[in-house]
Amino acid sequence: MIQRLCVIGVGLIGGSIACGTRAAGEVGSVVGVDADAANLRAALDSGVIDCAYDNVAEGAADCDLVVIATPVGAIESVLKALRPVWSDSAVYTDVGSTKGNVIAAAERVFGAVPPNFVPGHPIAGAERSGVGAAKRDLYAGKRVILTPLPETRPAAVDAVETLWRCLGARVSHMAPGHHDEVLAATSHLPHVLAFALTAMLGRKDEQDEIFQYAAGGFRDFTRIASSDPAMWRDICLANSGEIVALLELFRAHLEIVESHIKHRSADELFALFTEARDARQRFLDQLEK
Amino acid sequence: MIQRLCVIGVGLIGGSIACGTRAAGEVGSVVGVDADAANLRAALDSGVIDCAYDNVAEGAADCDLVVIATPVGAIESVLKALRPVWSDSAVYTDVGSTKGNVIAAAERVFGAVPPNFVPGHPIAGAERSGVGAAKRDLYAGKRVILTPLPETRPAAVDAVETLWRCLGARVSHMAPGHHDEVLAATSHLPHVLAFALTAMLGRKDEQDEIFQYAAGGFRDFTRIASSDPAMWRDICLANSGEIVALLELFRAHLEIVESHIKHRSADELFALFTEARDARQRFLDQLEK
Lengths: 289, 289
Fold this sequence. Notes:
The structure is a homodimer of 289-residue chains. The first copy, chain A, has 289 residues and is α/β, with parallel strands linked by helices. Chain A has two domains: 2-174, NAD(P)-binding Rossmann-like Domain (Rossmann fold), CATH 3.40.50.720; 179-288, 6-phosphogluconate dehydrogenase C-terminal like domain (6-phosphogluconate dehydrogenase C-terminal fold, Orthogonal Bundle), CATH 1.10.3660.10. Chain A has eleven helices and nine strands. The first copy, chain A, has helices spanning 12-23, 37-45, 56-60, 75-82, 100-110, 154-166, 176-208, 216-221, 229-238, 240-262, 266-288; strands spanning 2-8, 27-33, 51-53, 65-68, 91-94, 117-118, 120-123, 143-146, 170-173. In chain A, the strands form two sheets. Chain A has a six-stranded parallel sheet. Chain A has a three-stranded mixed sheet with strand order 7-8-9, with helices on one face. In chain A, helix 6 links the parallel strand 8 and strand 9 (170-173). The two termini of chain A are 29 Å apart. In chain A, 53% of the residues are buried. The model of chain A has no long low-confidence stretch (mean pLDDT 95). Chains A, B: Belongs to the prephenate/arogenate dehydrogenase family. Chains A, B: It comes from Methylomagnum ishizawai. Chains A, B: Pathway: Amino-acid biosynthesis; L-tyrosine biosynthesis; (4-hydroxyphenyl)pyruvate from prephenate (NAD(+) route): step 1/1. Chains A, B: This is prephenate dehydrogenase. Chains A, B: Residues 3-289 form the Prephenate/arogenate dehydrogenase domain.
């Protein structure tokens, strides 16, 4: 049981952690910290948090579990703000979509990653944001990846695992570099492609009015292009190495497909599209497990 | 009112035309033609069609409206089979996803496109196929593009428009070349990207087990990669010029995005992602109209 939980950044992700732990009866009180006064007020008014702070150090003091749920780009400044009140008896974690850069930020701020800081990433979210979108069952059945380092205290890892398990999530461990490689493939690259395609076609739409003839397939394919631009700018910068490597690979792959189409290589196209369909079925089979 | 409707290819698209016209009370009897005996039997048993033929010429004889609802790659051979029984008093149309190649096929078969042939394309469909997936309201509120030529008989165009309107569809006219350009952008390019990405990541999954960490965004983005490989091979070959041109444009566009990420151009990334999100909102606003 968590006595006093501090959630820094009370948006969809942080707000859902607050709601969920309370619904599970696993928390005494919840402290919310947010730079957005209106969002903080909404979190307090709706009972998602018990008390509200706009100051990180004041909010986190005397808490036994501190969750940094800000956008990736803000984590380093949050760690700096936490440093003066960092408590050896508390446990700290984050929910950033990239992990290598969070660990690098912790090293810059503390000299070495503190043994009671457990980097983590819940694979959940939506295009919606803000505490109004928070819900207690956001993490039910979802995956959470923790990327503890060799020097991370096992008791700290246990505390963070317990938090996620009480929210119904399935917890895995991974090396930080592997996390960033996997997520670049399954999340970051698809987002960049969706943003790039939608921007390109948006310009064509202005000229040729093409969107009125787009249908359900286009709606689903471009859904992630409605995601928060600031959040995705930060993720692209935080995991640039992996994303650039995959973009290069994908452009080369696309050039081959283009060549098949240009040279009317029917068998190669059929084989590639069949391979893709089978791969997606493998993904769907795992998603339902 | 159609006296005798012939649907050649009683799958999702053709079967839904048969169900929908019957439900609207706009058809006397429906003749179904299909090369797949099991599918044809299912269409007959479920009452989607009134009589069944495996031979195009026999099925289409004495019908006043003939809809070619086969895959794009089969349309030329269907036109060849229809030629000996082609009736000047009947109206013919198709539902192919590409139009330039259908018109070229008609020119090859007949010397010139017959004035009672109206090329068309309903923008509806799904990953599912076969008559079992057919439903009477598949076209309700959907767009249908007709691409009549200057020599197409106005009465023939009217008959095909009436068919689609009784199914609840919204009918537009377009030049065939413009149709193929628009659909390359909003449908063909997204499908090729989804197939290419899913195949590429499928190989990575076999090595690194990445799919188990993919979530809802990935599921939606790759949904169209579950589409029928043979159908999409045929579409890529039928509209290769437009698709290749857009693939080239997209690869160049992607190279710029890659360069922004590599050079940490935060403002450019934010502007591009914002442009994409705004463009998608324009698309959504139109979809709801």
